[in-house]
Amino acid sequence: MTLFNDKTANLSRRRLLKGMGACAALPLLGGLFPKSALANAISTALDQFTTLVPAQKGILTGAHWGAFEAIVEDGRMVRVQPVADDPAPNDLIDMAPYQVHAKNRIKYPMVRKSWLEHGPGASPELRGADEWVRVSWDQAIDLVAGEIKRVQSQFGPQAIHAGSYGWKSVGLFHNSRTLLHRLMNLSGGFTGYAGDYSTGAAQVIMSHVMGSIEVYEQQTAWPNVVEHAELVVLWGVNAQVTLKNSWNMPDHEGQAGFQALKEKGTRVISIDPVYNETAKLLGAEWLAPNAYTDVAMMLGVAHSLYSAKKHDQAFLDRYTSGFDQFLDYLLGKTDGQPKSAEWAAAICGVEAGQITQLALDMAAKRTMIMAGWGMQRQHHGEQPNWMLVTLAAMLGQIGLPGGGFGFSYHYSSGGSPTAKGGILSGISAGDAPKNSPAPIPVARIADCLANPGKTIDFNGRKVTYPDIKLVYVAGGNPFHHHQDTNNLLQAWRRPETVIVHEPYWTATAKHADIVLPVTTSYERNDLEMGGDYSQRYVFPMHQCVPPQFEARNDFDIFRAVAAKLGMEEAYTEGKDETLWLKQMYDAMALQARGAKVALPPFTMFWESNNYVRFPVPEANKQWIRHGDFRENPLLNPLGTPSGKIEIFSNTIARMGYADCAGHAKWFEPKEWKQGPAAAQYPLSLNTSHPTQRLHSQLDNTPLRDKFAVADREAIMIHPDDAKARGIADGDLVRAFNDRGQILVGALISKDVRPGVVRICEGAWFDPAEPGKVGALCKNGNVNCLTFDEGSSSLAQGNCGHMAQLQIEKFAGTAPANTAHAVPANA
Ligand code: PGD
User: Fold this and answer.
1) Does the pLDDT value for residue 21 go beyond 60?
2) The predicted structure's pLDDT at residue 722
3) Residue ranges of the Molybdopterin dinucleotide-binding domain (predicted)?
4) Within a 10 A sphere around the Cβ of 596, how many other Cβ atoms?
5) Residue 420's CB: how many other CB atoms inside 10 A?
6) If you measure from the C-alpha of residue 372 to the centroid of ligand 1, how many angstroms do you get, rounded to a whole number?
7) Other C-beta atoms within 10 Å of 566: how many?
8) If we measure between CA atoms, which residue out of 120, 132, 61 comes closest to residue 523?
9) In this predicted structure, what is the pLDDT of residue 46?
């Protein structure tokens, strides 16, 4: 099948070429060659230009879950096939047709009735429960532009929260959040956010300890790990699940890496309250600590190492600072409590003998500790990362082949060797106006909305919350991602106006005042890199189908708002989609040329429906994280004040926080098995990322058939805990605590430690009584149960991975699940 021979694709091509017509120097080569001949000719000449022919069947595009060809028939996307380069195609891509043609697409611009009739601030308690009124695009744009103008002039930029945290879709031009920030920067500024929900605690603590955030940094390359690591310790990692998706388009090389470990037979130990999918794949040994007690366990390992004199004193002397201060704590000199294996065992529930053996095994072998991020999404979440680095430093293998630690092997294929070529940059948010408001820590949003004027600590500074009047969301889903949904529901009533751009009727859209329907990424043209760390691919994202119903691109919505505000030219810089894409491609191709990698001109690239695969230099396959630091710490110091690994940080100690000391330490979390809440709520919650979804995305697709139990989100319960409550596999269960209650379906399994239950994040919030605080969520949104506090005064990260709760078999008639229903008259 040749490309563009269906009506829709022709439309896409015409629009694109029309745009190019404005660019006089560009020859329209697309019309001169038969598609496959052109593609073949270019790929023969340029190795890095990868032809899909003859396997080519559809239109090349992609998503967070992979690059694929979309097959379109009669204007509908009907199926997809992965690109041949993908070593581990992800079944999530099969959902693309269901994304486009979802029943709960937002069809038209809609406004909440009370807001429309009575203006900003009207009946905010009806958010989520009010009627909706359809309006024209012209009216919608007027309302949005009017609100921005009103709030800017009456209250100033700090009154607009347009941080708009979220995973949106891939595509570097149609980047909803950046596009929003661009408009806001041009129109006077806004309150943004600092950090993120993924790694809020880790980013801050690692900057102090390692001088880099570590969580989004390249890891020791997989070929090096596979060759040299003798023992891999997975500490709170379920890479098989999280590697399915990436921030950019995934290259899925991480999954290939784990597969290679398996084939080699490398010993793997998984430390996790759940015997997870990755542990199963690798046949890993399993150590199951009590939930939220990893720091105590790590301290026990460190104490065992020190007692057996197996720590690497030479490494500590040369590459770290402050070990002696930590040692006083480890040995109990500062608090009278040695952090022995026995002490740790009483907290973490792993036997002292196993803790000691783990220490000896790690010291005896070349050990790579791969850590996940769930541990740091907890109260005192700074400590697991700091303690893990401290432990790795005591082992002395940081910077050696196959040894040390890595905080990103489970994310976007960290360790996939970096290619040589060019990097695409997307549209920019532009410069923030002078005196723009200071950002708030991202996960403090509900606290900020509810408590204007409140001052909190944040990484050595003070942050005072502004009085937010307007919330603008484009590309995120706070009613899924934020902790303590009922608290958010109340805080969400404080602003006068909430505007949401969404393709679907998510809970966030349902709780807005103005909802604008946007295209999915399959309804527009874009470009994206493939492989976040490898930067190996450049993928075109061709428009596959026309915009559905009245959906518009975020860019076009913001352009129209900018026009109303008298700043369209500044917003677009006179360029349409085509010219933006061409400019992005050309800048990338220039970089590639500098790296001696030739690429075809944009028109050829775009017309050929192919992608670019950059070469990977052999040296990069053996790259070792912190290898240069190890080789010469004077010439290659870390970015810390001492230039070394800061086992003790004077900077943090000087902040004087009660909840984060100058070295890694065990702090009891607000809620845990031995805490006061446990008497009433004895079970500890684990909120893993889902296997069949990306956060809340794709919850509204047939993937549900693979994971839903009793038509709800599943809860994994140990047989002993289920039996004690008379719960059978497949039963409908009410999970609850003082903050909320949700319906979930029982999945009984010995893969979870007794006393721990697993409910994945991402189920859409579906209150039985919309607008009522504390109503039963009928779909199982786990954040109804989590608490909304900062990890500590240092990072103010979220604590989404912890909560104590109780469960019971649900009595009565099961209410219908309406999470994916469209509001009446919408
Ligand atoms: P998504 O489901 O990806 O979740 O939270 P996030 O808000 O990022 O939401 C993205 C939304 O953007 C979707 O509703 C989607 O439809 C919409 N969207 C997609 N494309 C476009 C577009 O082009 N334009 C517009 N306007 N909208 C678009 C994720 C967050 O959740 C993260 S990153 C983490 S790590 C946290 N994880 C947990 C956790 O593990 N446990 C708990 N308890 N809570 C968590 N919350 C956090």
Assistant:
1) no
2) 98
3) 683-798
4) 9
5) 17
6) 19
7) 10
8) 61
9) 83
Q: How far is CA 722 from CA 711, 730, 809, in A?
A: 19, 11, 9
**504 CB less than 6 Å from ligand 1?**
yes
Q: State if residue 476 touches ligand 1 by the CB under 6 angstroms criterion.
A: yes
Which of ligand 1's atoms lies nearest the C-alpha of 699?
Answer: 2
CA 704 to chain CA centroid, nearest Å: 20
Q: Given this model, what pLDDT does residue 36 score?
A: 64
Encode pLDDT of 657-682 as tens digits: 999 999 999 999 999 999 999 999 99
Contact 800 CB / ligand 1 (< 6 Å)? yes
Q: 157-182 burial, b if ≥16 CB within 10 A, otherwise e?
A: bbbbbbbbbbbbbbbbbbbbbbbbbb
pLDDT tens digits, residue range 456-489?
999 999 999 999 999 999 999 999 999 999 999 9
Report the pLDDT value the prediction gives residue 55, as an integer from 0 to 100: 61
pLDDT given for residue 54 in this prediction: 60
Six token digits for residue 547: 């915009």
Quote the crossing angle between the two packed helices 382-395 and 294-307, to the nearest 10°.
Answer: 20
- Give me the residues paired with residue 404 across strands: 368
Q: Ligand 1 pocket: which of 373, 697, 739 to mutate (most atoms <8 Å of CB)? A: 697
CA–CA separation, 364 and 355 (whole Å): 14
Give the predicted TM-score (pTM) of the model: 0.95
Record the tokens describing residue 481, joined without a space.
């991602």
Q: Got the DSSP string for 321-360?
A: E-HHHHHHHHTTTTTS----HHHHHHHH-S-HHHHHHHHH
